[in-house]
Each structure stands twice: as C-alpha cells, then as structure tokens.
Amino acid sequence: MPPYYWIFIQVYCEVFRYLFEGQALSSKEAVKLTRRVGELVYMPRIHDPRPGRSLMIAMLLADDQQSYVIPLLNRACMLEVRGGFFIEGTEINPRGRALKNIQADICPQRWFCRPVARPAPIDPKGARLEARRHGEMIAKALQRWPTRRGHSDPRGNA
Questions:
Q1: What is the pLDDT of residues 107-149, one digit of tens each?
Q2: Is residue 123 classed exposed, middle or buried when 0-12, 13-18 and 19+ CB atoms within 10 A define those classes?
Q3: Which of 61, 67, 116, 58 lies closest to 87, judged by CA?
Q4: How far apart (Å, rounded) are the C-alpha atoms in residues 132 and 54?
C-alpha cells in the first residue's frame, strides 16, 4: 500500500506581499509596507493521495482564528529559502456577495513568510480590571435608559 501524504502547516509569522493586482511592487520599501502578522495556515483544499497532486491553499488568519488578514491564496506552492519561505499562488478577492452573483478578482500573488515569536499575552489581572470597567459603563448606560424617555414609574403609577 502506498504511503499516505498529507501536509498541514500552521505557524505564527509575518507575511510580505510582492505583487499588487498581479503586478510587481516597485521597490523594497513598498514590499516592506505590505507587512502583516498572523497565523499562517497552509493546507490542502482538494486532497489527492498521489504526492504533489493536492491543490493547496494558504491563508493568514487574525488572532480570532476566523477572519483573514489578507485574501487567501489558491493553488499555493511553497518554496523554502534562507530565513523563511515563499508561497506563490492565485489571490482571490471576493466582491458582489449576493447569493446568485458571487464574483471575484483573481490575480497571481507571491508572499514571503518569516516565522516570528507570538506577542506576549496580556496581564490577566489588568484584563479583568478593564472588563469590569467596561461592564460598569454598560450597566450605567442601561440604568439611564428609562430616564431618557421621560419620567417612568416601574409600578405603573404616572
């Protein structure tokens, strides 16, 4: 029985985009301005058990692990180089999200990815204090709500 090939890569890294709408960016400074940081996921979109035949996608996810930082790459190919790796593929920018009129701009794209350390987690004590302040602010706003409409009596006596 042949070996079963499966590639799934997930790493926190910074990504630099080399192309804009399929055209190369003019300078290294322009490339540096495209820096985005997030969780890079490289995985098969359509799996084929034969080596090298799977269609891969690459996506850079925000900290919530749900939303894209930059549009995903379809038909992605990875090339490891010193200091990081390149991912080339087709960028898909969806537009017109109507149910019957889904359209997208499709253009070639190249990313340079470099793994970086995750940012330090926030202090839990400070986060709790901030959440408490936010909750108190919401409670005050809700308690003021009846007075906005004029005099109100919860017993029904006007």
A1: 999 999 999 998 877 788 888 888 899 889 888 877 776 555 5
A2: exposed
A3: 58
A4: 49
Digit-coded pLDDT (tens) for 31-49: 888 889 999 999 888 877 7
Q: What whole-number distance in Å separates Cα of residue 57 and Cα of residue 151? A: 60
The per-residue DSSP string of 5-28 comes to P---EEEEEEEEE-EETTEE-SSH
The residues spanned by each domain of the chain are: 9-115, 122-151
CA torsion through residues 132, 133, 135, 136, sign = positive
Q: Which helix (H) or strand (E) holds 86?
A: strand 84-98
**Contact (CB, 8 A) for 14 and 116:** yes
Neighbours of 75 (CB within 10 A): 15
Hunting for tokens 């340079």 — which residue is that?
112
Contacts of 109 (CB under 8 A, 6+ apart): 17, 18, 19, 22, 73, 88, 89, 90, 91
Rounded to the nearest angstrom, the gap between the alpha carbon of residue 39 and the centroid of all alpha carbons in its chain is 7
Cα–Cα distance between 91 and 67 in angstroms, integer? 16
Residue type for position 26? S
